[in-house]
From TrEMBL:
The keyword Cell membrane applies. It is a multi-pass membrane protein. PANTHER family: HIGH-AFFINITY BRANCHED-CHAIN AMINO ACID TRANSPORT PROTEIN BRAE (PTHR30482:SF10), HIGH-AFFINITY BRANCHED-CHAIN AMINO ACID TRANSPORT SYSTEM PERMEASE (PTHR30482). InterPro entries: ABC_transp_permease (IPR001851), LivM-like (IPR043428). The lineage of its organism: Bacteria, Bacillati, Actinomycetota, Coriobacteriia, Coriobacteriales. It comes from the Bacteria. This is Amino acid ABC transporter permease. One of its GO terms (molecular function) is branched-chain amino acid transmembrane transporter activity. It comes from Enorma massiliensis.
Length: 360
């Protein structure tokens, strides 16, 4: 059976995984040949983090049909949790960077998922603008809380304070989170390979959920809530599932992002960060996972590519955003897209029927 004869669902899934794998191979080859600049090479891990964030947010915005403006809040929960876990493991003598990252990513995802579940219990009873406002408020609350957290570790264990670092009472310990200064002295253990692994895990979780029974229930709630309730679907439950899974995946992406820098501050995870992730989802297409991957990667790379023309790069970036939003709705683009679909998705020729048809 050829590739074009696959079911549409399988066809779309294969293309999504292929985009990630082919991109990884191409970037690795180009980097090995020295064709990628140092500035662009430094953006590879953030690109993977933003791709994971866009795919996970698409689960809420595109698949579930809810507008969430606090995704950066869950990202920050995972990021700072990962820093604490990595610091504790390093203090315990764990030297393997792979184990440090794996432990931090798992704990960061779990903690962010728990926070998402607790926030989602009241939030998922809201809809529309009210839901957007509450999630926005949550993101700002998390940012302000992190500005007042002082956490350190020594041989006696973790120390916590909301006053200042001197009140931690440590003896020859290490400060992990230093209030408004954020997480300091982070070991940079994130790599492009780990970033691609995080992206593949995120894509696998989201696609498997979308294609499962729960995923079909989530989309039924999105399409017609009243009809879904009439057949016995618990709308709050399935919306909460999507919200919690997306929060956990955002936490894991936050760990990847934080472990790529020596210092991370809470103000990096503000409202603008949530809007940026939402832009990736909208431009890639609601519910379109492969579109989110492409848009997040392209729009993250674009400012760096345009850096040689620094005076005009943000102007060009804005023009590109406008064109991406406007062009797909033009008749010329739609006709071209329809022609391509007809060319590459022609129906397979039906096999000839065995024997002749019976005479009437």
């Amino acid at each position: 059976m050829g590739f074009m004869h696959l079911k549409p669902q399988t066809h779309s899934t294969v293309i999504t995984y292929a985009i990630v794998i082919v991109a990884f191979i191409v970037v690795t080859l180009l980097d090995g040949m020295g064709l990628i600049s140092n500035s662009l090479s430094g953006q590879l891990v953030p690109i993977c983090a933003y791709v994971s964030l866009a795919v996970s947010l698409n689960l809420v915005v595109g698949v579930s049909g809810e507008l969430s403006l606090g995704h950066a809040g869950f990202m920050s929960v995972g990021a700072f949790t990962g820093v604490i876990v990595a610091g504790c493991l390093a203090r315990m003598g764990v030297e393997s960077e792979l184990l440090l990252f794996a432990g931090s990513a798992v704990v960061g995802a779990v903690v962010a998922g728990i926070v998402g579940f607790l926030v989602g219990i009241p939030v998922m009873r809201l809809r529309g603008d009210y839901l957007a406002i509450v999630t926005l408020a949550f993101g700002e609350i998390i940012k302000n809380l992190l500005n007042n957290f002082y956490i350190g570790v020594d041989d006696a264990g973790l120390h916590f304070s909301m006053t200042d670092s001197s009140s931690l009472g440590m003896s020859q310990g290490t400060i992990l989170i230093n209030g408004p200064k954020g997480a300091v002295g982070i070991d940079k253990i994130s790599t492009f390979v780990l970033g691609v692994v995080v992206v593949l895990i995120t894509v696998a979780v989201v696609l498997n959920l979308m294609h499962s029974r729960d995923g079909r229930a989530i989309m039924a709630v999105r399409d017609n809530r009243i009809a879904a309730e009439s057949v016995g679907i618990n709308t709050t439950k399935y919306r909460l599932i999507a919200f919690t899974v997306a929060s956990a995946l955002a936490g894991m992406a936050g760990v990847l992002y934080a472990m790529n820098y020596s210092t991370v501050i809470p103000s990096q995870f503000d409202f603008n960060q949530s809007i940026l992730i939402l832009v990736y989802v909208v431009l890639g297409g609601m519910g379109n996972i492969s579109g989110s991957i492409i848009s997040a990667a392209f729009l993250t790379v674009l400012p760096e590519v345009l850096r040689p023309i620094n005076n005009y790069r943000m102007l060009i970036y804005a023009v590109v955003l406008i064109l991406v939003m406007v062009v797909p709705h033009t008749k010329v683009y739609q006709r071209a897209a329809d022609a391509l679909r007809e060319r590459f998705h022609k129906a397979a020729p039906k096999p000839a029927a065995e024997g002749g048809e019976a005479d009437e």
